[in-house]
Design the sequence.
């Protein structure tokens, strides 16, 4: 099963995926994956970090304060950092892979693009945030939820239902909902 969360910037996609990851871990589901986090300096976002959910290893992925050969908007991208974390999480043992996010900046990495293409065609269980411009391309792979300020709890509950009581079980370890 593949579940994608999309929506406008700053709507809470990462917050929701963190909450859902916590639910999975508490239920004994083996997860792997990464979360993105804002890199803040003097109260302003100056970049993004990627954090391995399991090991908590953190790397700078995008920054206004470093220069690399890849640039997206005002951010320079450290593709090597993304590739190192991503390769590690994909090769690990897991029942559900968490990806925050499948987005335009991440697609600067050939390794990321190729692995995402492979994963979409595989039986891998994925819970991911998805850039809103990719919805049309990814809807063939799984269920897409569009998060808004008005439907946060509804979306969260619908995803929990799919994960716990859905048509397909994500894992043999998942128990019936409370």
Sequence:
């Amino acid at each position: 099963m593949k579940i994608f969360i999309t929506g406008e910037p700053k709507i809470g996609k990462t917050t929701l995926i963190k909450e859902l990851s916590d639910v999975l871990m508490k239920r004994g589901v083996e997860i792997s994956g990464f979360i993105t986090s804002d890199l803040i300096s003097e109260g302003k976002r100056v970049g993004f970090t990627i954090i391995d959910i399991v090991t908590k290893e953190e790397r700078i992925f995008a920054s206004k304060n470093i220069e690399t050969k890849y640039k997206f908007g005002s951010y320079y991208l450290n593709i090597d950092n993304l590739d190192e974390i991503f390769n590690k999480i994909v090769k690990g043992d897991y029942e559900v892979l968490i990806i925050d996010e499948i987005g335009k900046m991440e697609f600067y990495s050939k390794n990321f693009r190729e692995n995402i293409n492979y994963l979409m065609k595989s039986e891998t269980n994925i819970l991911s945030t998805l850039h809103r411009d990719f919805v049309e391309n990814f809807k063939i792979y799984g269920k897409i939820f569009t998060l808004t300020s008005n439907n946060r709890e509804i979306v969260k509950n619908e995803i929990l239902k799919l994960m716990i009581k859905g048509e397909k079980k994500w894992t043999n370890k998942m128990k019936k909902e409370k």
User: Anything to note?
Assistant: The chain has five helices and nine strands.
